[in-house]
Amino acid sequence: MIKKEMIAMLLAGGQGSRLGVLTAKVAKPAVAFGGKYRIIDFPLSNCINSGVDTVGVLTQYQPLRLNTHIGIGIPWDLDRNIGGVTVLPPYEKSTNSEWYTGTANAIYQNLDYMESFNPDYVLILSGDHIYKMDYEVMLDFHKQNGAGVTIAAMPVPLEEAKRFGIVITDENRKIEDFEEKPEKPRSNLASMGIYIFDWKVLKEALIAKADQPNLDFGKHVIPYCFDNGTPMYAYEYNGYWKDVGTLHSYWEANMELVDIVPVFNLYEEYWKIYTKSDTLPPQYVSENSVIEKCLIGEGSTICGEVYNSVIGCGVTIEEGAVVRDSIIMNETVIGKNCKLEKAIIAENVVIGDDVILGDGEEVDNETDPHIYNHGLVTVGEKSVVPSGVTVGKNTVISGITDLADYPDKALASGKTLIKVGDES
């Protein structure tokens, strides 16, 4: 029988609704990040860099691009005969096939997959965080303490602690209590949603709690293990970790990459971030263009001015265009003499000539102020913005739009323009 010491289960089914139109057609872990990467590249690269060569990726929402991206795992050296990477969608069973209803339900539905490797330990990961972590060091900590469950936790400012699941530990980091989003936190150690379980402990908890609706780790599995006296420890992590769950945090994390010495370094020799890359020609930069503090993806053509921005692969920025503090994803075209400020433009978008994005004062977005804020302009993938229009801040555009959609050639700050039906 195959025997693996530790296998990883990577939860990548998230819809990521707080990313608005960026995740209308693609799962959050497949959203582009840092020019050439996708969010899921980070946990996958952590696995292979930590010596974890067996990863089950649990997909659900809009899985197509994620599946295509992962393929058979070649970029991460996860194309193994035994183990490697396996995409686990929820509809493979012949009887009573059901959607994954919660994080732990997704794992429960794949008990057979895990059983087939007869692991000692199972590492549970989320597919939508940007960080580097050596899971082997966490496993050593788990073994040294004789833990049944180890939860990765990081210190957060006390005033922010109420947004997280908080662990309360003794001086040896043994967990004495938890609080899920407490009003008055008794500790500032926040759970990162990264767990190592003894396989026997995990299996028993999942089977015992299987009939819980929306079976969840934080709400059901962890409390079950705790109540049963399983020794649980918190592994403290102090590196860079970013949940890019909102447009603003996603924008910020990308902008941090263009610093001269970025907080999060994509270029470390000993901890490479791997991704599936297409074979593209080098970047073309015209003699009249200006580029300052940017990441520019392969195959891009820059004829305008780009400042403090992250530009994906195969992007065209025409002459006279000025792009500042923006994220432009793969294969998008920015027309002549455009002015972009704090824009997030998804993949395969066409912006006509003489378009201004990010104009005027900030006004709350009319439909989803909790999503579209901080003065950003967001354009969904495969959208078209016609020449000569001016678009304000906290706005969102999705679909193939034409001049008739812009009264007086403008979309005022705070407006939402989503055309349904022409998204083919």
Question: What does this entry show, briefly?
Answer:
With about 425 residues, the protein is of the alpha/beta class.
What does this structure look like?
The protein has 424 residues and is α/β, with parallel strands linked by helices. The chain is 16% helix and 28% strand. The chain has 8 helices and 33 strands. Strands 1, 4, 5, 6, 8, 9, 10, 11 and 12 form a 9-stranded mixed sheet that branches. A 7-stranded parallel sheet has the order 15-18-21-24-27-30-32, with no helix packed on it. Strands 16-19-22-25-28-31-33 form a 7-stranded parallel sheet. Helix 6 packs across helix 7 (217-227). The longest helix is centred in the middle third of the chain and has 11 residues, at 217-227. Residues 92-97 have low confidence and may be disordered.
